[in-house]
Write a structure and sequence with these properties.
Elements lengths: L7 H9 L2 H27 L3 H8 L3 H9 L6 H10 L15
Helix pairs in contact: 3-4
Length: 99
């Protein structure tokens, strides 16, 4: 018997068809985007969580919470993260209504 492969986009579409799930997903999207960007930033440095956290003067566990989306960092912390990797933060506002 062969296993059927299901694409992530198909699963995501099916799950997000539920209005309650979609609302919760959209509420958490901001946190997940921040976490994803922090992970990418650290990956660009080639450092482990422990090494990157030491460079920032924070505990590895705090960085892990930020990267997992369990903790939303303050703007000041994000600026420190970015600067330690040689980046700057760009903040912009976009309309909530998508055309």
């Amino acid at each position: 018997m062969s296993a059927k492969t299901i694409k992530w986009d198909d699963i995501r579409s099916q799950v997000l068809a539920n209005p309650e799930v979609k609302a919760e997903y959209e509420a958490l999207e901001f946190e997940f985007n921040i976490a994803s960007q922090v992970i990418a930033l650290r990956a660009a440095t080639g450092l482990t969580q422990r090494e990157f956290a030491q460079r920032l003067g924070m505990k590895q566990s705090q960085l892990a919470r930020i990267e997992s989306g369990k903790q939303v960092p303050k703007l000041q912390t994000l600026a420190k993260l970015a600067a330690s990797a040689g980046y700057a933060i760009e903040l912009k506002f976009t309309p909530l209504v998508k055309h």
